[in-house]
Amino acid sequence: MESIIEVKDLKKYYKEIKAVDGLSFSLFKGEILGFLGPNGAGKSTTISILSTILKHDEGEIRFFGTDIKDNKKRIKSQLGIVPQELAIFEEISAYKNVEFFTSLYGLSGKELKNAVLEALKMVGLEDKKDSKPVTFSGGMKRRLNIACAIAHKPKILILDEPTVGIDPQSRNHILESIRKLRDNGTTIIYTTHYMEEVEEIADRVIIMDSGTKIAEGTIAELMESYKNTRIYKISIDTINKDNLKYDFLYEIEGIQKVNLNDNCFSITTIKEIENLDKIILSLIDRNIKISHITSEEGNLEMVFLKLTGKKLRD
Amino acid sequence: MILWKLIKQDFRNLITTPVIVTVCTIYPWLLVGSFGFIFSSLYGGKGVTSYDYYGVTMVMYLIIASITITPNTFMEKKLRQGNIRIAYAPVSKVSIYMSKIISSYLFMGISSSINMIIMNYLNLVNFGGSNFIYVLGLFMVFLLFTVTIGGAVCVILKTEELTNMILSNIASIFALLSGMFFPVDSLGEVVSKLSNLSPLKWILDLSFSVIYDNNFQNYNVIVLGLILLSIVSLIVMHVNYKPEDYI
After folding, report:
1. Are residues A158 and A127 in the same domain?
2. Per residue in A259-280, pLDDT tens?
3. Minimum Cα–Cα distance from B81: chain A residue
4. In this structure, what CATH number is given to the domain that contains residue A288?
5. Which of A298, B108, B139, B247 has its CA 20 to 30 A from that of B186?
6. Which residue from B minimizes the CA distance to A154?
């Protein structure tokens, strides 16, 4: 596959804090690459660097074989960015918004008009083109945010959490639009902390935590490594967890990892070994009162939990 | 071409901000009317009326108050996000900050000029008769200074609240010291000396000299000084403006 972005050993520091620490990956033509990670994982910093707005401290980034530092203007013209915040003007119409931002990419006249209408149609806002975003719902504003980024037909589209806080209808519309763009040849980087969205649309996934890449592959590949794993989530009555030692759980056959967050144990165990009864008994033996038990297996959330020891939305 | 598009959009953003439009249209008339009326008894003699005095000082006050207009175009909450998308586009950083400066200058310049022309035409305020164009020119150069220094402080401080607070307070102190609102000579020798240190007072004194005495002494020096300070402010902006600071 043709690689259109190559990132090698990327590093970005904010004083002492390593926001991105040695990140390397490739983006292949025509794919949707999902970037998963909790808040503070380094996703948005990586996106800002790729968008050429933020300078990196170390490492190398190549767009179509050209170093990012060499021709920022050309690289920018091939990028479409959907930032996490709504990057639109609320007091001018949806059409004027898309028209203005698209005109900055050199489009004019009929070509500009057609591009604007096409983008608005793509996100389902053609009927609202003359309305001001100030009158829109959150989901419609998010769709307009996308239209402003795609009208100039970028080769690479970078979306930073584009579905935060919107209704399911708008979310589905956005995901459908992204799939259409991919099918039309746009290469896409999609960051989110909604696991189910990545499972739904991404061809490949990079999982980030604390500025580093902790896993990479197709969803099937990532799941394969953990297909024999199950996670029990056991909620317990409030306890002083500082004094609680739970090493005893590791003595039970099959248990691989134990975490305790907010009075809830996350216990990773081998799927084939039936050990729930032993886990329950050992907790009861230690006077720990169980209030709720659930079991999960075979999803990206579990992969993430296993890799990082925390939930994606922590 | 791109710069012109950005200027048009920034100008559009300014004219769709109700507070700014009110400050530029209603506020000058309100200030001149109320100050002129309140202090009319103090200006009973022939020649200068209270409306003449406060017409000049209040237009100048609004020009110095426009020091916060450029920071507004950069960082006002509802504009900030749209500005981010401009930074993502293949647009030079010079075009981005110059569009803010030029649109602020055009907006405030046009509104101040219209107010002055109408006040002059209605004989409400004496702006110098045949010297009107020189008074207008002086005010426009002063406006150039206020919008550029506003931009320079904004790119250094990078937060709208802090920038507005600092600039508003400094502008108010200079305005008070210059005797714009009431004569400060009666407040004692110290205040009077401090007043003479206020650059606003120099500009104000020069304006009245041009209007009433046809005296252009210091005109070129002050105009050149303001232009030089504006250029310095632009250099400060160029060095300090980084689009990533507004993400």
Report:
1. yes
2. 887 788 888 888 888 899 999 9
3. A87
4. 3.30.70.100
5. B139
6. B89
